């Protein structure tokens, strides 16, 4: 079977979880990757709860159509062009978000991601999966930090939420995947495991980023109420698998990995509940990690045990600074290349 052969499963948990969440009137949230999948569900949910939603997507007809769907659903949506495969585009997007969120940003949800792509370099020279999934989100978070501070000062809390994956499990993080070595990391020959190792490293980076950010955040920003959380979706029929197939995921290994997920996957609405709860549940606390329990099993989002690795967190932080050119994550940003 191909990824397209699996029909979307029904939602089991979405409605009951969303019913427990408060109204979000007066809040501004930003989310990357809202043209489909968990990001679109997230944006729709935040909007229906009353938030203004900044959606950051690569310019395309799909992005325009997704924005129109949100508007048709009554969401106060602000589109911002952001191509996560270009640091220049991310810098422009950060400037736009700061201009739009003049009253402060309440949540930044680093959701967008790609999966199982060949060993390709972005125009910045980075691995396409690592730059899309982590490095550009690292840069974006630094760029919008001033409006997160403003949101926390105005309303007592602001959150940075990163979207990891069950694929995070595996070898410890290696600096080479974070460096400008795109197209030279290898592993695309038979059986083609390299693309999945690069994906694993990028989703591990999402989780480690949260812990590294929390560890290094200035005390005054913690006192302001800036919180850092992570979520994972569990096995989710989000459409990402079909995109992987269209991008060349045709090997036996690719089909086995995708089909194994889709056989047990829950709905995209249920898969979005981790980032929804991490973003909007008033009981959620900084440093927490939400997602379905177990290993590769669907279910409602629950509080996960911490998965700390200080050595990898240090590698993540220092290499991400060097690759993105950020010299002061929480303050003046110079030397961006």
TrEMBL record:
Belongs to the short-chain dehydrogenases/reductases (SDR) family. The keyword Oxidoreductase applies. One of its GO terms (molecular function) is oxidoreductase activity. The keyword Oxidoreductase applies. Gene3D superfamilies: NAD(P)-binding Rossmann-like Domain. InterPro entries: NAD(P)-bd_dom_sf, SDR_fam. This is SDR family NAD(P)-dependent oxidoreductase. Transmembrane segments: none annotated. The lineage of its organism: Bacteria, Bacillati, Actinomycetota, Actinomycetes, Micrococcales. SUPFAM superfamilies: NAD(P)-binding Rossmann-fold domains (SSF51735). PANTHER family: RETINOL DEHYDROGENASE, SHORT-CHAIN DEHYDROGENASE_REDUCTASE FAMILY PROTEIN. It comes from Microbacterium schleiferi.
